[in-house]
Amino acid sequence: MDSTKKQILLIHGGEVFDSYDTYIEHLKTAEFEPERGKRWRDSLQEELADNFDLIAPLMPCKQNAKYEEWKIWFEKSFPYLKDDIVLIGVSLGGMFLAKYLSENSFPKKISATYLLAPPYDNVGADYSLGDFVLPDSLERIKEQGGQIYLYHSEDDPIVPFSNIEQYAEALPGAKKVTFKDKGHFMGEEFPELIDSLKKLI
Asked: Which residues, in sequence order, are bridge partners of residue 152?
């Protein structure tokens, strides 16, 4: 990695189930996708190559995610990180970062934390959060997360749009960025995020 560039550490999303049996039933009924299709994350390094190095670990068993497993794997990245890093968490990955930074000390200085459509709780939703449930206070994120950005779209079919207000209340000072038509941020392009990241240079 180029020592002159800033780093981005991106944590992808995942699914959580209350029990292994529930997970198995989900696999039996879920639709198989032979091709995922291109998403904005696939070209993130290319878009930002002049100024950033991207670290995007594959978190353990994202189809049946467990917080403790993700925490162990996340911490294995620490020896490769440097100060002024940018953290991006997408969906469950955003909730993971919110929980981790609320309960633990991050070893490097964080310049910015982006939480993209993260669940806050599962009120009004049809998914479990398992052991990803947030603590009562997110105070430690404010202390160590740098500038915090909250992204959400009004037409998100998975995470209720109301969750962004819950995060905003828990994280005063965070910058809210809302959209009307970006769903759960699974599109091929995300120029608004790219532009925001470039402004961090």
From this structure: 178
